User: What shape does this take?
Amino acid sequence: MHFSKLVFPGIAMIATTYGLGRFSFGLFLPSITEDIGMTTSQAGIISSLFYLAYCFTIIYTTFQTATIGPKRMIMLAGLSVIVGLFTIGISPNALILSLGVLFAGASTGLVSPPYGYTISLWIRMTDQGKANTWINSGTSFGLMFTGLTAMVVFLDWRATYFIYGVIAVVVLLWNFKNIPPLQHNLNISTGSFNIRDITYSKRIILASLLLGFATAPFWTFSKSFIEQTGHYTDLELSIFWILIGLFGIIGGVSGAMIDKRGIHFAYNLGVIMLATSSLLLAFTPNIWLLAFISSGLFGFSYIYLTGVLLVWGIKIFAKNASLGIGIPFLLLAVGQVIGSSLAGIVIDTVNFQNTFIIFGITGYLALLLYPQIKVKAKPQPKGKYNKLQQSNKEILDYYEQHN
Assistant: This one.
């Protein structure tokens, strides 16, 4: 199948679910909080529902995509974000808002693993890495788009979410048209699960939790923080958010950094940049240039570190790549559930500045959990396939028969 026929609608779906459905909430949170009449603590708890819904759906899709089929799962993700966006837009109170947040958050967990399956089935193996990289960049494109729409002065947050919902419908139809149905009962083996892998995964589990916890305030309250200073115009607030997405695209260089300097160096560099972005914002919210540097640094380091965690996880779970991706991303979301809920309470108790200082310092603690990986290649018998190799052979054979 032609590369762009799957990749372009894939970028659009990731941009819709992650950018419009999930992360745009922090951009519009000040207006939503004021209109619905919520406290900062309530806003933090409701924001954590995005990550909580993601936790449940990412587990579901990891184990059910092969059974249900990737196209049906992606369609379910599209329907979920449509319901979420329209529900958020019409929500008259915190309860209905929470329901919309749950649907929007659930879509992100429903969409990621199915696209991994889709790319492995329909894109040539030599192009699969490039395809996955482009599709994952959809989050950053979505963030930039939400920042641009926030510049449109005649649109309030409700009208904006309605427009997002219409866009989500178009994106869903585009994906429905372009993703082929799975007409062949192809069983993709992801390898066996080894208890030894759990022993080596303790560090990545703790690191993912801690990094998720430390990043939650920035995603949820960074725009609220600088807006309440009164030093920013609506245009500058939008630029602050756009820079997160713009520099997030550049964050895809983590793979090249790992190849050049090793995963230990790449991880430490990412952690330092991520924690520094929160501290920089805490001490300079009134200076727009430094706040912009903070948002760009956060966007870059967040996407960069997720790439490092992905490589780290796959190296640990060498026989089960889906777990290698799913575990760190799941634990990152669990940390964000805790961090978002707690950040709102801390802000109400102390203030924005001290909250970002606390969470920024917490981020540096992740330096103690650097990767320690020992990979030993095991020779395979000549002329025979192991389970994972056999699955790849089946994928290639199936691809050649249908193209």
